Amino acid sequence: MGRAGNVRAGAATEVGRVRSSNEDSLFAGSSVFAVSDGMGGHAAGEVASAMAVEHLRVLDGRADLHPDDLREALAEANRAIRAAGREHPEQAGMGATATGLGLVRIAGSPHWVVFNLGDSRVYRYADGVLARLTADHSEAAEMVASGALTEEEARYSRFQNVITRALGVHASIEPDQWVFPAVAGERFVLCSDGLTGELEDAEIAAVLRDVADPDRAAGELVRRAVDAGGRDNVTVVVVDHGPGGADPGDTVPRAAP
């Protein structure tokens, strides 16, 4: 898409200490970055999350990328996951979260598009402050919004894993989407709930503050989550926008199965 700013990305993923397989998938390209957490078990979740990131991967580097392209890619992924579930009975009921970033141009200037379905998250770190940009689509999050649970209670609630919006669950989807100008010096963290289930926001912020390289920052976050318990698969993508980064077209794509 040409020079839309200096962007570098790093990524890491681990199965954790409890699960037997990694059902998370990721993509870290030049203008599209995504994390997907599969649901369904018996390898079906792994299939669903891989399908999710593949539909987003094809948009990477597109010169005329538009927010609607990301929305349509998610809709196509939803249709494909549902069709696969119908075709292969062992994959029936599989689904996946999908969250991430797209770098687009609006009125000639670079903007970020954040998208989300499910309880994977996108955070922004800038000027020493970590801010969550996405809202979890879970019963626990809805109970927090209604006042039935506190944030701390929700963290350990059995409703935390009841996802209310995801790919593959319903015939139509309603992803959240936000668009805002890109600012030099900002960092983003895309992650599955295997990270946020183990680490508090303050620890995530500390790693982003202390570890400059995005690959090393992603790896450190994953390591700490596994050391803290590793009860779930842990996947992290760190995206840096600012001086010293490579041009988006020079970023080496990375993907996890």
Folded structure, characterized:
Strands 2, 3, 4, 5, 6, 9 and 12 form a seven-stranded antiparallel β-sheet that branches. A five-stranded antiparallel β-sheet has the order 1-11-10-7-8. The protein has seven helices and twelve strands. The C terminus is likely disordered. It has a single domain, classed as Phosphatase 2c, domain 1 (4-Layer Sandwich), CATH 3.60.40.10. The two termini are 26 Å apart. α1 runs antiparallel to α2. By secondary structure, the protein is an alpha+beta fold. β5 and β6 form a beta hairpin.
How many whole angstroms does the radius of gyration measure? 17 Å
Mean pLDDT: 89
Q: Which CATH C-level class is it?
A: Alpha Beta
Count of individual beta strands? 12
Classify the secondary structure makeup into a structural class. Answer: alpha+beta
Q: Describe the global form.
A: globular
Question: How many structural domains are formed by the residues?
Answer: 1
CATH architecture: 4-Layer Sandwich
Strand content: 25-35%
| CATH T-level topology | Phosphatase 2c, domain 1
Helix-strand layout with pairing:
Blueprint: E1 7-14, E2 24-28, E3 32-39, H1 44-57, H2 67-87, E4 95-96, E5 98-106, E6 109-117, E7 121-126, E8 129-132, H3 139-146, H4 151-155, E9 176-181, E10 186-191, H5 193-196, H6 201-210, H7 214-227, E11 234-241, E12 254-256
Antiparallel strand pairs: 1-11, 2-3, 2-12, 3-4, 3-5, 5-6, 6-9, 7-8, 7-10, 10-11
